Amino acid sequence: MSVLIHFSLFPTDKGTSVSPYVAKSLRIIRESGLPYKLGPMSTAVEGEWGEVMAVVEKCFAELRKDCSRIYMTLQMDYREGAVNRIEGKIKSVEEKL
Asked: Is residue 1 pLDDT above 70, yes or no?
């Protein structure tokens, strides 16, 4: 089951700059080996359901170690048999401009 997600996960109890916590999640995502793309407000990750959800769970568990309040948004698109949608979806729109 191929899914493409974009999610944002950060503490709300650590002040105005949460980039160190975003970096913790990004390390987990990078180490997973799954295709990803960091954006200014969220990160896209692509892969099989179990792999992607395991990454989200690890990111949440890492922040939970020292954060008492965490905010997360998660959007997901499932498309059977689809691959490389992180780049492909953007390219498809740009080709139509």
From this structure: no
Number of domains in the chain: 1
What does the chain come to in residues?
97
pTM exceeding the 0.85 threshold for the entire prediction: yes
Six-digit token string for 27: 């390390």
To the nearest 10°, report the CA torsion of 88, 56, 22, 46.
-10
70, 64 contact by CB (below 8 A): yes
User: Can you give the CATH number for the domain in which 79 is found?
Assistant: 3.30.70.930
Element (H, E) at 74: strand 70-78
Q: Quote the CA–CA distance of 21 and 10 in Å, as a whole number.
A: 6
The token pair at 94 is 């740009």
